[in-house]
Amino acid sequence: MEAVEARDLPEKFFFWFPRSAAEWSALIGDAELYGGLNETWKELRAEAPALARHFGGRIPVISFGAGDGSRDRLLMNALKDAGAECLYFPVDASQCMLEMACAGAEDDDFEAVGIKGDISSPVHLIYAADAAEPPRLFIISGNTMGSFDPLAEIRYIAQCMKPEDRLIVDGEIFDEAKAGRGARIRPRGNSSARCWRAWELKRRRRDPLQSKAR
């Protein structure tokens, strides 16, 4: 009610209803709009063996803003092929999306526990991170960072991390020239996904200009 009275509806409410969640899930499968982002995650699968070695075979995967979990499963299946056992903890404000993420994980034979939470809240992030002991693999995918102040959000996530944890962040690189011409911006060729250590995040937290540059 507070959001309605303020005439400002946060994005997290867009996915609260079954129809909107289903439509969003169908949209992110569109090859024209999101093909580049999906290809980036397929390329990231090649790093799965090295990632599995770091974790020693058992990997708690905590995905902030997991949505339907489709990109998470791309990586988790690659980790499974590399001999790792993944325990999946999708985190989302939408009950519908959580159910989709957990159902998809269970279809792929992953143990899954959904966590309903607002990832813009530092308290909720810490609560979700406490679902498993370190080392943990944190994921924030699908350009989710674009829904928040990215520098503030990355600081909140860094507060949840221990030195042995890893974080994968992906997002679309904004092209101002294309946006200025009113052209449709497609993630193809403009997507990036990186795996960061906790100490790297802390270094970027101390140097916001460096974070912007990257």
- Please name the CATH topology: Rossmann fold
Number of domains: 1
- Main pleated sheet: 7 strands, mixed
Global outline: globular
Strand count: 7
Q: Over all CA atoms, what is the radius of gyration?
A: 17 Å
| Overall average residue pLDDT | 75
The structure class reads alpha/beta
SSE sequence, one letter per element: HHHHEHEHEEHEHEHEHH
Kindly report the name of the CATH homologous superfamily.
Vaccinia Virus protein VP39
Counted by DSSP, the helix tally is 11
Strand percentage: 15-25%
**Percent helix range:** 40-55%
First-to-last CA distance: 38 Å
How does CATH name the architecture? 3-Layer(aba) Sandwich
Spans of 5+ residues with little confidence (pLDDT < 50)?
179-191, 205-214
Explain what you see.
The protein has a single domain, classed as Rossmann fold, CATH 3.40.50.150. 47% of the residues lie in helices and 17% in strands. It has eleven helices and seven strands. α4 packs across α5 and α8 (150-160) packs across α10.
Please give a quick description of this structure.
The chain is α/β, with parallel strands linked by helices.
Keywords:
214 residues; alpha/beta; 7 strands; 47% helix; 17% strand
